[in-house]
Amino acid sequence: MKVYFKPVSAINVLIGALCVSILLILVITVEQQRIGQSEAIRVYVNSFFVFWNFKSIGLTTPVFPGGYLVMAFFIVVFLARLFTSTSFTVSGIGKALVNIGLIVLLGSYLYTNISKTETQALLKPGERLNYGDDVHAFEVALVTDSENENERVFAIPQRMLERSQTIRHDDLPFSIRVDDFVLNSIIRERDESLPQNTRLADQDKGDSVYSTRIKNSKLGYKNNTPSVYVILFNKEESIGTWLLHEAWEPQRFEYKNKQYSLHLRARRIYYPFEVRFESFEASPGSTLLTTSLIGDNIQESNSKETVNGSNHFGYHIFLEDNLDENQASKVFVKRIPGKTIPLYAVALISVGLILILGSSQVNRKASPPAL
Amino acid sequence: MVQSLRIYPSIIALALLMAGGCSHSELEVYEVASSSSLSTGSTKTNSNQGGVVALEWSAPEEWTPRGSSALLRGHYESNSAKGVQSETTISFTPCTAGDRAIIVNENRESIGLPTLPFDQLDIYGKRSQRHGLEALRYHIENSENAASKKIELYMLVAGTHTWIFRLEAQSQAAKVEMERFESLITSISPVVQRGRSNIIPKGGTPYISFAIPEDWVELKPTPPRITTLSIKKPGLPAADFAILLFNEGKETHLANLNKWRRHLDLSDWKEHQAQIQKTIIQTQSGAYDLYHFGGQEPSSEGIRGESVIIAFLLRGKKTWVFRFQGDALLIDTHKNQFIELLNSISFEEDMQSK
Predict the structure, then answer these.
(1) Do the Cβ atoms of B348 and B186 come closer than 8 Å?
(2) Residue B102 pLDDT > 80, yes or no?
(3) How far are the Cα atoms of A106, B229, B293, B309, B310 from residue B232, in angstroms, in the given order?
(4) How crowded is residue A22: how many other Cβ atoms within 10 Å of its Cβ?
(5) How many helices (H) and strands (E) in chain B?
(6) Of A47, A81, A150, which to mutate for an interface test with B (greatest number of B Cβ within 10 Å)?
């Protein structure tokens, strides 16, 4: 078995992976000047591949491994080293613990980053909600009525928007093409300064304006105002092109006697519970914030009173102290699973290093001095 | 040869890793409770602006429904042998404060009244809170022409939109129709939507109304305040009046009194001291426990120029708090107005029972 892991565990492979990591860090350092720190980390570190859109041929394809893939590769390398170089000596156990610690450390980073959610929403006392706006991603929501008087939502995630994909779904009578997603944009009136080859919308709010890219916000991802063009078509006809802008309200249209709306918004994340903002006392010197969590059954008996900043159902919930002009408070709901795992990983690595160093000291004392 | 074969598992592992790592993004499809039911008249404002406000109501049996649309959420007529006695419309429309002023003035003009400047409309109307929304009420009547129609406007401001309940009644049937309109207004309640959806106002603030004393200016209240009023006099800092609703009963009154006493650097009261200082004000809406402290009262830090009047009204398990705070001189001279305001208070539940 060992023989199969040997090639991956070779020191050359490890050095190669380190070189790719250094190159990635170099690219991030350069790119954060252009697209901002949070966007650079999202594009180059928190992704498996770095994609490039070759506009001339209309293809978006991976061009370089992203941070996640490099980390996953490191995990494979450390696993291979664990299989190939473990021996039942003190030094061998130390090396194994270091390898396990590194695997756990990288694995926990991947797990936490992929599964964490951070949302925010504005709430007034007395209101409740069961979803929040993702602070790290946007989406296009196509909403239509369902048969049971509910709303049916087709949410197109930001990754698909960035890759200019065409989306088809059995329940939709048309295909959706998303194109020219811009993370931070402003809307301009069409006039003589309209650049050549600018994509133009022909429906609703976008029929007399166009979107222009501006520098990404340095005040946080959520402060960007993205825009995207959405083209609806089917085999027989082109239905139209809509320009969506995050600051705009949903744009409604009718197709084959059915109502639809298109909206570019922060990605909506639903919780398995509801947060209710009970009361907020802003009297001088004392602030009392209370939230209640209600389970899926939405029964008062299931509610849990909680003070600001509590953890419930694995989520951390807190309210921002200051009020905005809408008289609403910002509610943050975060879920960061596995955030304590790195501590155990560091403990394993530390114990491993102590064993390796201890064993080398013992060996040095045991070997006779050279004459 | 064997050596080259050994590398295959590693290559396969890497290939699987890369395939798995393609982070396949997918269209997410799900259902949520509808946020735009036309039957009850609801709308969803931008989540960043506050949430959903869906309302439902019961129209009086005597009124005949005349259909509805996306904008006109309700339309009723009251008929008699003499013809149409009243017409009530319920609309939900994007509306700014300026738009609301225009609507009021258009209605005034329609019965021969002059338009009012924007700043006077606030005084002309009656403000209150209803289900956590700002409620505005305008009774439009031409006193010089008794035969003219009477119009009642009731507006509920829901973020960028406003619910407008409008009654237009013939003068001879005005009294009866006004009563029917009143019953419609009291029946308004927020729609509680079930399911995985949206922000729903629940347990909104009960309806309280009162007469704002002359010279007192209403300001935008910040939660948990239900109402904020301010009095300004040249050379003196503004006095501040606030209405709050606490979920606790009588047991917390002393703790709250002492909290506000400490803001004025005054020593805490014991239970019996608070009892001695208490004055009971009996009004149509209930018995208020009134406390007045600060100002000339000696304290360890010397004499402060601020005083506070606090009135507690216990209703069920909740306590309404009316706090009047500011320069001692200003508070003293306006104490009577404060008590007049308490006298003018009425609650929704009381109106319903009447």
Answers:
(1) yes
(2) yes
(3) 63, 10, 21, 17, 19
(4) 10
(5) 9, 21
(6) A150
Q: Are B27 and A149 a contacting pair at CB < 8 A?
A: no
pLDDT beyond 80 at A288? no
Cα–Cα distances in angstroms (integers) from residue A94 to residues A91, A325, B327, in the given order? 5, 58, 73
Residue A362 reports pLDDT greater than 70:
yes
Sheet arrangement for strand A166-167: A166-167, A175-182, A227-233, A238-245
DSSP B299: B
Closest CA to B189 of B50, B69, B61, B42: B42
In the Cβ-directed half-sphere of A366, how many Cα atoms lie within 13 Å?
A: 6
3 state DSSP class of A15:
helix
Contact call for B31 and A152, based on CB within 8 A: yes
Digit-coded pLDDT (tens) for A315-325: 777 766 544 44
Q: Determine contact, residues B249/B317, Cβ cutoff 8 Å.
A: yes
* Cβ–Cβ gap B10/A4 under 8 Å: yes
Mean pLDDT of the region B110-137: 77
Which pTM does this prediction carry?
0.50
Contact check, Cβ <8 Å, B199/A127: yes
**Segment 13-52 of chain B within 8 Å of chain A by CB:** 13-14, 17-18, 21-23, 25-37, 46-51
Task: State mean pLDDT over A30-39.
Answer: 80
Q: Binning pLDDT at 50, 70 and 90, where does residue A104 land? A: very high
pLDDT band at B194 (very low <50, low <70, confident <90, very high): very low
B302: left (phi over 0), alpha (psi -120 to 50) or beta: left
Q: Is B251 exposed, middle or buried (0-12, 13-18, 19+ CB in 10 A)?
A: exposed
Q: What is the pLDDT of residue B39?
A: 26
Looking at chain B, which residue has its C-alpha nearest residue A9? B10
Q: What ipTM does this complex have?
A: 0.71
Biggest CA-to-CA distance, chain A: 98
Of B17, B48, B259, the CB nearest to A286: B259
Which of B315, B182, B201, B27 has its CA nearest to residue A125? Answer: B201
> CA A274 to CA A303: how far, in whole Å?
9
Distance, in Å, from the CA atom of A4 to the CA atom of B7, rounded to the nearest integer, reads: 6
Chain A, 301 to 340: residues with Cβ < 8 Å from chain B are 323, 326-329
Q: Using an 8 Å CB-CB cutoff, list chain B residues near A60.
A: none
User: What are the pLDDT digits (tens) for B205-227?
Assistant: 456 777 777 778 777 666 567 77
A276: chain B residues, CB-CB within 8 Å:
202
Tokens of B293: 């402290």
Rounded to the nearest angstrom, the minimum Cα separation between B260 and chain A is 9
Closest residue by Cα to residue A210 from A180, A183, A253 = A180
- Asked if residue B192 has pLDDT above 60, the reply is no
Interface contacts A/B by beta carbons within 8 Å: 161
* Conformation bin of residue A180: beta by default, left when phi > 0, alpha when psi is -120 to 50: left
Candidates A348, A38, A76, A29; CA nearest to B16 is A76
Please count the CA atoms within 13 angstroms of the CA of B37 that sit on its side-chain side: 18
Contact (CB<8Å) B21/A72? yes
Measure the CA–CA gap between B209 and B349, rounded to whole angstroms.
12
A178 vs A182: CA distance, rounded Å: 11
Q: Are residues B132 and A125, on separate chains, in Cβ contact within 8 Å?
A: yes
Residue of A nearest to B31 (CA): A152
Residues of A in contact with B220 (CB under 8 A): 327
